[in-house]
Structure formats: structure tokens, C-alpha cells
Amino acid sequence: MSEANVWKTLAAQMDNFSSQIGAYAQQDTARKSRSAAAAKSAQNDLRLSNERATKVYVDGKESDVMTSLSQLSIDFDNDYEGYIQAANSLEKTWLKNKELDAVGGMRAAFTTMVKNKKQQYGVDPYKNYVAKEKEEGKRVGVTNIKDFVTDANHQVSQFIDSVSDGSIETLDDPDNYARQVDMVAGKYMTLQAKIDDLVKINDFTAKEAMALESEMELKFFSGVIKAQISNEMKNDRGWTAIDEFEDNPATFISSRKHLQALIPKGVKISDEMAESIYDDIFQHYKDTQSEADYLETKLE
């Protein structure tokens, strides 16, 4: 064979070999594509299977979870802390179930459902707990103020007694009067501050605070005037003092220096309050006189 034919044959063989390599490469690529598609399909089928299994499990358990938590919200309707402790205990028990690890994603889905339902059924116990705490705060605030006014009236009574009998001014302690005045002079302002705190701290409405303020101011002022009347009665001037107060409460107070110390300048006793105080001191006068007459009759 001539040299030209040899090269021609060799070139044809090389072309054929290249074609075979190209065809193999195409077949290999197609095979890999089919394999990848099959793997992706299998993964998708597994994912769908897991999702179906998870949904079936979670849906099946959701009713039990809701029933249990609903009952807890009833059992602990005013005890949010008790509800949370009981709900956490149930959640811990539920999450111990090994079935949750049988399928990927099932534990996460179930845990999310439980936490959401736990929060949902805890709303009412929490609201009731907050309302209960507010009511307790109001009760404590009112009790504190009432006790404060009672104690203030007791101190005021002692102060007026010491002024009336002269024991407040002693030669060996000339500053005693000023000290005693300081002890009682701020009682009214302290009462006002406590009323303000009811709104700031104890969740009182302005209307509720104003109603209690009127009640406690009446009790305080009545206690002050009643203590003064009691001392006037010791000097047989009780009825005269009552008439004086009825005629002009402002003059009754301004004519007695020690009473001015108890009621801040600018604070005016309203006509309605003065009428209530008059009724109170008049009843006090009658009760005291009746008691005195009874004791006197008994002694005779």
C-alpha cells in the first residue's frame, strides 16, 4: 500500500475513534442525568412521605394536647405560675416519646405545636392572674391608707391633748413643741402623696382615687376636729365649740394655732365636708355624754 493510502486509512480510523468517544461521552452524561433525576425523585418521595407521616402524627396528637392544656387553664384559671409549671411538666412527658425521632422533622413540628398551644391556653390564666394582682394591689393600697389615717388621727389626738394640757411646752425642752408640730404637720401632705401613689403604682383610676381621697380627707379632718372637741369638753366648752365649728369651720381652725399646723394653708374644708364633720362630732358629743352620764349614774 502506498504511503498516501496509509495516511488516508489512518485518518479515517482516527475520525471513527473520535466519533466513538463522543458517543460514549453523551451516553455517560445521559446516564448520570438519569441517575441524578432518580435520586432527586427518591429524595422528594422521602420528603413527602416524612411530611405526611409528620402531619398525621401531629394532627393526631393535637387534640390530646389541646384537651389537656384546656383543662389546665380551667384548673389554674387564677394561677398562671401553676398553669405554666403543670404545662411544662406535660410538655416534658410528651417530648420523651421516641416516636418523634422515627421521622425527620417530626420532633420539631410537634414541639412547635405544643409550645403554641401552651401559650394559647395560658392567655386566660395570665389575664386572670394580672387582674387578681391588680385587685390585691388595690386592696393593700386602700388598707395602708386607712391604717395611716387611723394612726395619724391617734397622733393628732395626742398632740392636741399635750397642747391643751400644756405638757407640750416644758422648761427643760423648749424645742419640744416645734418637734411635735413637725411630727403631725405633714400628715395631710403624706395622705395626698399616698393617694397619688394609688394611681401610679396600684392601678387606681383617677375616679377611684378621687373617691377614696374624699373619704380619707373627711376621716382625717373629722378626726382632727373631734380630738379638739374632746378637749373642749374637758373644760365644759364642748357644746360651745361645736356651735363655733358649725357657724364657721375656717374661723374655728384659724383661731387655734395648733390646728393650723395640722391643716395646710390653702386647704379648705368644703361645706359638704363641714356638714358631715358636724354630724360626726355631734354624735361623738352625744356618745361621750351618754357614756359619762352612765358612769356617773353607776358611781352614784
Would you write up a description of this structure?
The protein has 300 residues and is mainly α. It has helices at residues 3-75, 80-94, 106-121, 123-165, 176-185, 187-200, 206-234, 238-247, 249-254, 257-262, 271-299. The chain has 2 domains: 39-121; 134-299, no CATH class. α1 (3-75) runs antiparallel to α2, α4 (123-165) runs antiparallel to α6 (187-200) and α6 (187-200) packs antiparallel against α7 (206-234). The N and C termini lie far apart (170 Å).
Short characterization:
This protein has helices at residues 3-75, 80-94, 106-121, 123-165, 176-185, 187-200, 206-234, 238-247, 249-254, 257-262, 271-299. The protein is an all-alpha fold.
Helix and strand element order: HHHHHHHHHHH
**Could you give the count of β-strands?**
0
Oligomer state equals single chain
Distance between the termini: 170 Å
**Low-confidence regions:** 293-300
Radius of gyration: 46 Å
Main β-sheet, in a few words? none
Relative helix content: over 70%
Strand coverage percent: under 5%
Mean pLDDT, to the nearest integer, reads: 81
SS content category: mainly alpha
Count of distinct structural domains: 2
Number of helical runs?
Answer: 11
Q: What would the principal axes of the Cα set say about the shape?
A: rod-shaped
